Amino acid sequence: MRNLKEVETIVVKVGTSTLTYENGRLNLRRIEILVRVLSDLQNAGKHVILVSSGAIGVGWQVMGLDHRPNTVPEKQAAAAIGQPQLMSIYENFFRKYNQKNAQILLTHMVIDDPQMHENAINTLSALLDYKVIPIVNENDTVVTDEIRVGDNDTLSAYIAQMVKADLLILLTDIDGFYNSNPSCNPDAKFISEVMKITKEIESMAGDSASDLGTGGMRTKLIAAKIAHSVGTKTIIMNGESPENIYRVLEGDIIGTYFD
Ligand code: ADP
């Protein structure tokens, strides 16, 4: 059963498909609404952490490429260029709402290494104490396959674990979890609540249908499982209208809830 009125610490992950238009350029209107909602929740006394993709998408346009980069060095260059640009856009919007923010870039090493893990937890908790909204991403510029988390769904679940979040919200380009991928099956049925991620549920999750997305529902289920292991609830919902986050917290049946 959903009971989200009392949640205090919320991790919100936003995917590239939510942050950008189909042409790959940033959807500033949506980003601004998201920033306003997160700042407002913070004002209301919640602790908020944002996990944001989008750096490579911003970077390749600045590089003047007419397509997303394919090679690793090109992708890492695009991330190096795009990450500060994306942060600057967030910062400008957050400043408008008098909300401070900070950047945290992680790799899998930080999750695996006990010392680094503890440092990251302490930093995140200090930021939350100072009422700062941390904006987290994988450190794409230096990451290699060996130390890559690989997708921000999983990364956001690790963050939820670190801060003992009450709720993980995965904003995406679809209303939630269906019993098969609606991009391939027009008869797919919406599932509003998953009490346990069974093998059957896992078999319903497909990959991303878009060029922009990465993990599809597979990585979102992995994230929900990691979150569940520490008692964090997960909502997968459409990021089209970030104001719906208020409705979710008020108990409206929006998105798919994972207990
Ligand atoms: P994001 O960039 O927001 O992480 P993704 O493209 O990675 O988005 O994931 C969302 C996509 O997952 C949906 O648009 C859909 O094409 C795909 N998908 C695969 N299986 C399912 C499913 N069972 N229910 C809903 N969407 C699914």
From TrEMBL:
It catalyses: L-glutamate + ATP = L-glutamyl 5-phosphate + ADP. ATP binds at K13, T172, D173, T214, G215, G216, M217, R218, T219, K220. Transmembrane segments: none annotated. Substrate binds at S53, D140, N152. Gene3D superfamilies: Acetylglutamate kinase-like. Residues 9-238 form the Aspartate/glutamate/uridylate kinase domain. GO terms for molecular function: ATP binding; glutamate 5-kinase activity. InterPro entries: AceGlu_kinase-like_sf, Asp/Glu/Uridylate_kinase, G5K_ProB, Glu/AcGlu_kinase, Glu_5kinase, Glu_5kinase/COase_Synthase, Glutamate_5-kinase_CS. Keywords: Amino-acid biosynthesis, ATP-binding, Cytoplasm, Kinase, Nucleotide-binding, Proline biosynthesis, Transferase. One of its GO terms (biological process) is L-proline biosynthetic process. Its EC number is 2.7.2.11. CDD domains: AAK_G5K_ProB. Pathway: Amino-acid biosynthesis; L-proline biosynthesis; L-glutamate 5-semialdehyde from L-glutamate: step 1/2. It is an enzyme of class 2 (transferase). HAMAP family: ProB. Belongs to the glutamate 5-kinase family. This is Glutamate 5-kinase. It comes from Lactovum miscens.
